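Hello,

Following up on my earlier ticket. Below are the two sequence lines again, exactly as submitted.
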Amino acid sequence: MKIANQYKIPVVPWGGGSGSQGGALPIYNGIVLDMKRMNKIIKIDKEALTVTAQTGIITKHLEWGCNKEGLSTMHLPASIACSTIGGFLAHRGTGVLSTKYGKIEDMVMSLEVVTPTGEIIRTLPVPRHASGPDLTMMFLGSEGTLGVITEVTLKIHPQPEARKFRAYIFKDFHTAMQAGQTLMRSRLGPCAMRLYDETETKTHVSKVFGIDLDKGAYLVFGFDGREKIVDLQMQYAREIMEKQFHGKDLGSKGGEWWWENKYKFFYPGYMFHVPQAFGTLDTVADFSHIENVYWAMKKVVNKEFPDARFIGHFSHWYDWGCMLYARFIFPGDKVPPNAEEAAALYNAVWDKAIRAAIREGGVINEHHGVGLKLGRYVKDLYGTAMPILEGIKAKLDPNGIMNPGKMGLPGCW
Amino acid sequence: MKIKPDSYMFEMIRTELTDVVGEDYVDVKFADKFGHSIDYYWIPEMWHDRGRECPKPDFVVLRKSRAS
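Thanks for your patience. The regenerated structure is below:
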């Protein structure tokens, strides 16, 4: 870092290279700092239930290391086999158990960071304190623009005695959304919940499961922990689903289909690929706004881009709202062969859909990050707070060497 | 980067980097640079699919520890 800062060479940290936002692309050349040799588990503390690791470790390897001690990070993303834990920290990533165990930012105790000028700093050792502003949170999600996160201490957990799932088909997406929200407001504490709209249930969930599901919206949820408690939680949740919202019960089997196939959705044959043009328009909003965000994004994509298909599911649920994993897909024969025209079409979808999300109370992203793709919307989102972000960047990275051109922040290139 | 790859200054920086992390851990081979020019973002993948060139790093540096 000191060499790069002296000669004013761009530095782009690189983890697994699995990001979808162009956050690790060396758009101004320079140095790519590939972190995968910094892959050691430094310590598992069985008293505090924490793990300290270098950030270039592949997430699956970190999980396996914890599993050997009967423990788990509970951070189980679809890209677990190919992404580094540093990539998740840099982009505020998430895993399938986020509803109980949180996104990555909820799991972090402390960080070690190398600043753009080459100083090695540590954030405070614990996340709950009244000892000033939280520098840990400032670096989480900074996508390599403020420094390189080199070490992390994460909370870890004992493996649960039981983890049980159940699924339902609701007559439509709106009813399923109301059922999901009611479950969250009940504070029963599911470990995961996912709701697929009617289109994605029909075209995607059925295909992945290899089962022709009934018409409607598929909702799955689960609980984990001590088995007797899990059974009681499930009993109360079933009352909400069946008595209040009249969901068609697919039983525990219908829930297990999802858990067993949770990563298969992203495997070849089930995932989209070039020559198709596709993107994940993920966003998050509170329960008062999330349905409006969904309809606004769907309406604008359907109206402005009739060649594209719009599908969506809600995959990370919180006490106050949930995340929309909306996607658009153009068939390959509807994508211009000319690269500039294809890029223009692609960017136009993002312009319309992301601005629709912001207007309805959403944000530009929930867990993939900003990167190059969404940088131009950061000013729209932050408004008059944008100079604060720019000021932090200027103070920490006076020569603008760190990941220039990303997150809508200035660099010197 | 403002320094041209065929300049002596490029080699000066490369050797300064290898002095810190070792000769084997500063890659300037085309394959290594190419592998770090495309991630899972659709635009660079499409760009490559259309036979166009994506920006590549000048150096791929693989560190083993955070301190020199």
